[in-house]
Prior knowledge:
Distance between the termini: 44 Å
Number of strands: 14
Strand content: 25-35%
Number of helices: 8
Oligomer: single chain
Shape: globular
Structural class: alpha+beta
Helix content: 25-40%
Mean pLDDT: 81
Amino acid sequence: MIHSSKPTFAVLALSAACLTGALTQPAFALGGEKTAKILAPVAFDPQADHAGEGGSLFWVNQPDGAKGVKKVIMPFFQVQFVTASQVGATGAGGAHAKMAMRLKGPTPAQMQAITDEVYQSFVTDLKTAGLEVVSPEEAKTYSAYSEIMAAAKPSGEIVKGMNSVTSAFYAPTGMNFYYLPTMLPDLAGGGSMTAIGNASIVRKEADLMSQSGAAVIGFRAVVDFATLSASDRRGLRAFARNAKTKGEAGLLIRPVATQVFLITPNAKATMIDPQSRMRLELQSPLMIDSEAITDMADNQTSGQKTGQAIGNAISLLGGVGMSKTKSYDIVVDPDVWQADVTGALKGVSAAAVARIKAGL
C-alpha cells in the first residue's frame, strides 16, 4: 500500500478492507430488497476457464427467476472503465489528506474493442447454454427497443460520478447505454437514476418483453485499475488528529455493480421497485492476474509540491493540522491491459451464463 510519497505499486496484494470500503452502499431498492454481500478478493486468471465458478462468484436474488426462459433480447450491454478516482480524509485538528490516481495508456478504440469482443462472447455463451438470442437486426424492429436506444447515451461517454470517480461507459458498436436503476453513487453515473428515470426504463423494458416474447437480459461490468481508501472518523477515530489515505494499483473487476440481470415473467421489475428484476451480482472483487501495470508515477508538479509545503508551514504556525496531497499516474502497457481485461471479462461472462443455465 502507498503510505508515503515514495511511488510503489502492487497488483494482487490488496486488502479486503480497502477493496470493499467504497462498495458497501446497498443498491437502491424498496421493500427490503437485498444485494450481494461483498466477500474477500479473488485472484482471477484471465486465461483460465471460469465457467464452473458461477455458483461461487455470483449471488442471485431470485434463483428461479429464469426458469422456463428459452429466448432473450438484449437492450443493455455495458462495460464501465474507471479512469480516475480520489479519496480524502480529515483529522480532528483540521488535518486533511487526499490521494488521487488516474489511468494512463489505454485508448478509446481499445475500450470499444474490448466491449465488442466481450459482447460477442456473451452472446455465444448464451447460445451455447441453449438460449435463443434475438439479433440486433430483429431487436430494432420492436418499438420499445428503438425507444430505449433513442433515450440512451452514446458509447464512449465520460461520466464523473460521486467521490471524483471518472469512468468511460461503453456499449457494443451500434448500441447505446443507460444507467441501471441502482444507487451505487461512485459507479452509477453519480447516482443519477431518479424515480422518473427508473419508471421510464422499467416501462420500456416491460414493453420490450411483451413485444418480443423474450426475456430481457443485460450485462454490466466495472473494470478498475486501483483501490483507494481513507481513514474514517467514527468511534475513537473521531478524535484522531491524523488524516490518512491508502491506495494500491491493480487491475480488478468490481463486485455488485458487475452483474447480469433478467426481466422475465417470474422476475418483473416494477415502477416502485426496479430492483425486483432477477440479478446475478458478482460477490468478490476479481483481482486480474496481469503484468499490464508498468509504472506508478507521481504527477504533481514542483509548483504544487512547493505550494503545499508553504501552506503546511503556515498551518503549523497557526496550530492547524497539515495537508497532504498525493497524486499518481498508473501507467499500463495498453496491449497487455487490453488482452487481460478482455480475457477476464470473458471469464465473468462464462461464469454468469453457467449460473443462469443451472436455473433454466
